[in-house]
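Bench notes, afternoon.
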Amino acid sequence: MMRMQRLSNPSKAAISARTFLVLCAAGLALVGCATVTSVGTDPIDSRYSVGGGEWSSGGGITIAARAFERNGVTVICGAWTMDRQSVMTSELNDAVLEAGSVFLDGDRAVQNLSFMRLVRYSDNIAGEQANCVAAGLPWKADYDAAPARVRIPRMAFAQGDLPENFLVFRETPRAEIIR
């Protein structure tokens, strides 16, 4: 596993910025916390929407997600795949998934996408199985017409203190991989 290192002599501003970012991340995690319970799997089909992003060094993550109602509760299903990644970035994908969310009609249905199943990369993942969780969010009629929207914040990772050792993940449109 790649170890991310802090800069050798961080300034007070860097420490303050780092502290601020850690506190913001913790606050966002708490705001988006809802108890999720595994409820099985679901085959990926045209009801799934696609999201994700790419690494500054190339390659990316594509996520397929959908939502539906079961007994008045929102169920989120999802799977992800990666393409053209280096060892450095593939070891950071878990952190990216943990920071991700699925939204329905502007409401955060689930925070932390690590429940999603990794599937082999292909230009068509229809038929692959996605993991599903009960999101703890009561279902609203407005969600019937709302596609699941995957959101991942821009994230930067550093190994050492040289600029070429910085990796950035950013949300970008992804190729349609469900046919």
